[in-house]
Amino acid sequence: MRQVIGYVMLAVLLGLTGCSKDEEYGNAVTLTETSVELYAVVNCSSTITITATDKWTASCDAKWLTFSPSSGEAGTHTITLSTTATNRTKATRTAQLAISTGDSRKVVAVRQRDEYAIFDQDEITVGAAGETLDNLSFVTNLTPDDLQLYVSRSVDEWVEFVSSTRALTRTEYALKTNALRVKPNTEKSAREGAFIITMANKDGNPLGLDTLWIRQEGRPSDYRSSDYSADGQVTQLSSHTVGKGIPIVLMGDAFVDTEVADGTYMKVMNQAMENLFSEEPVKSLREYFDVFAVTVVSSQGTPGSDYETALSTVPHIGDTGVDADEEKVLEYVKRVEGIDRNITLTVVVLNSNLYKGVTFLYAFTNYAIAFCPVIDYLESETFREVLVHEAIGHGLTKLADEYVNSQYGSATEQDITILKDRHERLGWMLNVDSEQDPDKVLWHRFLTDRRYDSEQLGVYEGGNNFFKGVFRSSEKSMMNDNRSPFNAPSRQAIYNRVMKLALGQEPTYEEFTAFDQAHQPAVWDYSTLTRQGGVRDVRMPLAPPRLIARPQ
User: Fold this and answer.
1) pTM of the shown model
2) Using an 8 Å Cβ cutoff, are 524 and 485 in contact?
3) 246-253 and 131-133 as β-strands: parallel, antiparallel, unpaired?
4) What domains appear along the chain, each with residue ranges and CATH number?
5) How do residues 323-381 score in pLDDT, each as one tens digit?
């Protein structure tokens, strides 16, 4: 059953709008809508447009609702409202968004619907030999005719799925599928994907209600390397021509001796290097870097706890994290002579096609280790995107994630204190802020710089995984959806980091913008905030960076 999953993710973002009498205390604010209806799922969004004759502020006490921007000057503004959690109360819930200016106040009534469907489990793991699963079961307050079970494209090729049947209880439906068969995995790499329960939204498009992840282990191999003569060899792939040279050290894990001998290993290293320099501003700063590849020969060719690999990488099940022997990684970094390890970006590429990615950051130093498998296949766009997100975004520049995670909720006072400390003491996470005043936020100069009007920069609530209390500068970006360019504040942080490490300089805003205007990212559609067309497979959010509170 091949289904178009891309529409599911788009549909989750759609909201419903309606009209009802608003609560009016003056005429200084006018609204295009006085009521908004949102679906029960997390991250469901809708917008309203307001016109104010003076400075205005917005407020709402509901924990399940966030909105951005929360204030502004006189004029016409669009406010985006988003749900921070799936409504599992089994009842519709309501909130009020108050828009105030001076003594005037208007209220928007917000309603989150109550439809739900929830799998009995979050993930399934199946062995390489395959097996038959009795069913996939879930509970819902919708009828079977209202629901459809989609499978991601990656799963559709190796799972035979049969249509659903139902069983009725007193208060809700308990639904389950007929048996489904997971085919044997003849490849050495594990594979994974998702089942998604959907309902139709008002436009008839699928709206995702819940996701069940399935992972199948790869085919075990008895092969073990016998030739370790190339292990530890260093190859310089690129040399700096300006400044002191910022070192990047590439290495792989779970590559056996035959993959080194036949050129596969170095082919992967070279593709990883090209991926790293594929986005602005690093694309135009390549002359400041030295890139090395260290050959790492593993005993077995599959990462995981059941296999013996040189760096002991273990992809997580249920999230995109990776565990590894970081001390062993450092031993291979030390094979590269004459580099400053305190400013070294290390990239470990796993010999796997799984969707994983995580970065280890070390306190008080610029040293970092970014982990990323060869996702899907060597030339895939997803491999490139995740590698840039992890290595350039997190590893080199210490940028924060700009997406949100329902498990994090609102940032606490302690969370805000930690964020400010990393801003002031380390110069990290400069792409997010706890300040929401457009005149005081870290990127305030961009907001009044007309050269950046097309990027639709602002103060959007949600970032560093938190729904509330942390703000970002754009709706989408490389640090949010991985598919968009770095936004202007992130590009500035990258440029400034490179200038500091390579030249010992602290660029001014004018120096950065002069460079940036001459090296703009590839043209992309700011109305949709993505450069990628076509169907995209379902992916889970990338794991947040892992902070190791000691110098390396």
Assistant:
1) 0.80
2) yes
3) unpaired
4) 8-112 (2.60.40.10), 116-216 (2.60.40.10), 234-396 (3.40.390.10), 413-518 (no CATH)
5) 999 999 999 999 999 999 999 999 999 999 999 999 999 987 899 999 999 998 999 99
